[in-house]
Design a protein that fits this description.
There is one protein chain. With about 500 residues, the protein is an alpha+beta fold. The chain has ten helices and 30 strands. A hairpin with a 2-residue loop joins β18 and β19.
């Protein structure tokens, strides 16, 4: 289970891993130097004053007769039980039920009104500007009526929200200090290495400034939390309440913002995730300048390049992002980007996979004319696209719906190819499969369940639009194209397939 680190989900046990006596050996140490421990005390002392605790409060409704913090009737299975009255972290469990949106019944329309109560939650943050700019996670301050920043010396300052970004889970706060604050800088997180020592400081379980240490366990982790996932993974002890706190390198610069943990119990098991500094930096800059994010928009639907697709497109290996569709009113079309292109470089940056393209595009300025390198028909071409402003952003192409079962055989003649029964698009088939009127191509009427096509989620009712970037309108077009590719020595072919709603995706099928 991937969980955000806001203390509203805090476990009742105090299973902490404090870093007070923890020492690490330098990477690639020789036997002689391995005995020389890294002392983190100087580093911790140098940056501690820049790390803050975040306390928020909000008003929530309580049903008549319900003890504050007690879940309403109909609690979903698997949710943690509420401790008894006066138990530790009582308020923290209250925050859990508020964030899940499970308010007690009652209210308007003749029902009994719910009394209100104050509720608190805790998190972490850090200062990036001595004038009073503080960074934390959006989920730490989400829905808060009041936000208080608590410094290492006990000073408490009310904070105002400058801006937030839910997609990267970043929020920017401003306080008004009477003197300049201790601030820290973002590092170049692209330069971190797996195995590199790191140190985290935060407010786990509401205990205040706590130092833990570990290493970078992995980079560019996708935990399926949003379109821009590229988390740093660390084994530094991070628990509920560490949300929004900094992950430091040994130079004392912030390489990431601690955001989520992987845990079945809610406690630390040595797998935690931080938003990389290079992802956070442009978001923070836009939030400070505009109070919102202004991301670039390309206007395409993309798909992962598999080994089979790479071979069919002569890419020389898996790389880039495959364009499965182009928005009719987006910037990509006028720039000459076409369905079937593979973007391998964008604004001078290599696109290694489909996950990278949305992040690179979003970090590019709106209105900028950007050079784009695409692979088309096995050759690289240079295009220029002027980005719009993101509203929906790049979308991932569907990988196929669940099979709906095999329909009856159509009355018109069909052709078999690669485990598929193919038919021309008739009005009878259009009605049978509920195909949109603007869909044109060759209808799949049956699929051999033991074929590669079935493995790739091609199903009856799908429509083949292209085979290897050539449009097809009849079953004969499909079989002819397959034979041509076999004569060319190709081992696979790239099919552009649409479902009943017109959503498109590419599927590579072997020709042997």
């Amino acid at each position: 289970m991937i969980a955000r680190l806001g203390s509203g989900l805090a476990a009742a046990s105090l299973a902490l891993s404090l870093g007070a006596g923890l020492v690490l050996s330098p990477p690639a140490a020789t036997p002689a130097t391995a005995r020389q421990a890294i002392d983190l005390s100087d580093l911790a002392e140098r940056v501690m004053d820049a790390v803050v605790n975040i306390s928020t409060s909000s008003r929530v409704d309580t049903a008549p007769g319900q003890r504050p913090g007690q879940p309403p009737q109909g609690r979903r299975p698997g949710q943690p039980q509420q401790p008894g009255p006066g138990a530790p972290f009582d308020e923290l469990f209250e925050e859990f039920f508020r964030r899940r949106g499970e308010n007690p019944p009652g209210g308007p329309n003749g029902q009994q009104q719910q009394p209100q109560r104050r509720q608190s939650s805790l998190g972490s943050g850090f200062v990036v500007d001595a004038s009073g700019i503080v960074i934390t996670n959006n989920h730490v301050i989400d829905n808060a009526d009041e936000i208080t920043v608590i410094f290492n010396d006990g000073t408490r300052l009310k904070a105002e929200l400058v801006g937030r970004d839910r997609e990267t889970d970043i929020a920017v706060l401003r306080v008004q200090p009477t003197r300049p604050l201790k601030a820290v800088n973002f590092a170049d997180s692209d330069r971190i290495r797996i195995g590199e020592p790191v140190m985290a400081i935060g407010n786990p379980l509401g205990l205040g400034g706590t130092v833990t240490a570990g290493i970078v366990s992995a980079k560019n982790r996708d935990i399926q939390s949003g379109p821009f996932d590229n988390y740093i993974q660390t084994d530094a002890a991070i628990n509920r309440g560490n949300s929004g706190g900094p992950l430091f390198n040994m130079a004392g610069d912030v390489i990431g913002i601690n955001t989520a943990i992987f845990s079945q119990s809610g406690g630390n098991i040595g797998i935690a995730f931080a938003v990389p500094a290079n992802t956070a930096r442009p978001v923070v800059a836009q939030l400070r300048e505009f109070g919102e994010t202004r991301r670039g928009w390309l206007g395409v639907r993309i798909q992962e390049v598999t080994d089979e697709i790479a071979e069919s497109l002569s890419l020389g290996g898996r790389r880039g992002a495959l364009i499965a569709g182009v928005e009719p009113n987006g910037p990509a079309g006028p720039a000459g980007i076409k369905t079937g292109d593979v973007i391998v470089r964008f604004d001078g940056r290599e696109v290694r996979n489909s996950r990278e393209l949305p992040r690179i595009v979003s970090e590019t300025a709106v209105g900028k004319a950007v050079p784009v390198t695409v692979v088309r028909a096995g050759k690289e071409e240079q295009l220029t696209v002027t980005l719009g402003r993101r509203e929906g952003n790049i979308q991932q192409a569907s990988t196929g719906d669940q099979p709906r079962g095999q329909p009856p055989r159509p009355q018109n003649p069909t052709v078999s190819a690669l485990g598929l029964q193919l038919s021309g698009l008739t009005q009878e088939l259009r009605q049978r499969f509920s195909l949109r009127e603007d869909v044109r191509g060759v209808v799949v009427t049956q699929v051999d369940p033991n074929s590669r096509a079935a493995e790739r989620s091609i199903e009856a009712g799908n429509v083949i639009l292209e085979v290897q970037n050539e449009a097809v309108t009849s079953p004969a077009d499909v079989t002819r194209r397959i034979e041509d590719l076999r004569r060319e020595g190709r081992s696979s072919a790239l099919f552009l397939v649409a479902n009943a709603q017109g959503d498109r995706r590419f599927v590579a099928l072997t020709l042997r």
